[in-house]
Amino acid sequence: MNTDPAQKYWLALLRTPGIGSRTFLKCLDYCPPEQLFAESHATLRKLGLSEKVISALKSPNWQAVEQDLLWLEQADNQLLLYTDKDYPKQLKQLADPPPLLFTRGDKDLLQFPQIAIVGSRNPSSLGLQIATEFSESLTQMGFTITSGLALGIDAASHRGALNAKGNTIAVTGTGLDRIYPAANKVLATEILKQGLIVSEFPPGTPAKANHFPRRNRIISGLCIGLLVVEAAKQSGSLITARMALEQNREVFAIPGAINNPLARGCNSLIREGAKLVENTQDILVELGHLFAQPKVQNTPSPTETASSLDTELQSLLKYVQYSPTSIDQLVTETHFSVENIAANLLMLEIQGYIIASDGGSYTRIK
Questions:
Q1: How far is it, in rounded angstroms, from Cα 12 to Cα 34?
Q2: In angstroms, how far is CA 67 from the centroid of its own chain?
Q3: Which residues contact 340 (CB under 8 A, 6 or more apart)?
Q4: From the centroid of its chain, how far is CA 253?
Q5: Of 72, 137, 236, 285, which is the most exposed, with the fewest CB atoms less than 10 Å away?
Q6: Which ranges of the chain would DSSP assign to H, the alpha helix?
Q7: Structure pTM?
Q8: Residue 307 exposed, middle or buried by CB count within 10 Å (0-12, 13-18, 19+)
Q9: pLDDT per residue over 62-91, tens digit each?
């Protein structure tokens, strides 16, 4: 149990209506929270606080604060104050850093070099595979993987790090006494075994639309580089990436076909200055000075790999694109029968050359 008596005043100030991150830190510049609650009405007015906020400060919600303190008594639950020595230095670079961070798990991970991976909540099967593989590879290179615990690319990124027995941090838009979305409860439990879950919101805070942009600034703020795997033109992932650019973080994006809606956001980011990424080595070019270069295994090129297939499978494989390709398209281009194509596609999928995509299409992966 953390017995720091100052915590209850920080929590009371956090829960004061009308006190956001900027106002909280402005007050903190004047005096510690425990002193602020004792200041006169005139002094609080000089700080620029409204009558409504001052009234709230004079009647703190001690009942809610008591519930917060009870939450902190539970194993692995901790609170980081802006003035703590282990508060992440990179977050202090933000224009509006969170004054408090609620954490569950290994909070030391906040000091580790992090790569954030974000993307669509409704990705393609190829997007999920790319996110998982990049996460696994970057974890093996020594990075901690940070994401937002959302469905889709976020979840795949967390799982990739867990698969590689590495570290992952989930930043949430709710209080840490609840998991959103509920479908990721099992994933959250797995993260807690070897990672960390973080929020600036106190226990009991539900999911609200305006919470997620605030969560996103923490994701981008914690990382040294951010990778966008798949994103539509108007998406939260693009907001996170643009925050990262504004925060002078390195931003990377996986390019895609111009007619793929899930690639338009990434392609747009690349036009705006994000670095085009085809493999993890592209990321190491920018960030590898932080790590000893790992031993790179020689991976056969697609041509070399495909040469091990028999002639008929090779003939079909060259028509399967690295984006969803329909059977009708393959029939038109190869003049093979539907039955022949279906049988050979199954063989190519079993041998790991293609994966089934949405809508009965197939995508080449090597």
A1: 9
A2: 29
A3: none
A4: 14
A5: 285
A6: 7-14, 21-30, 33-36, 41-46, 51-58, 62-72, 125-140, 153-163, 185-194, 211-222, 236-246, 261-271, 280-287, 302-306, 311-317, 327-334, 338-350
A7: 0.81
A8: exposed
A9: 999 999 999 999 999 999 999 999 999 999
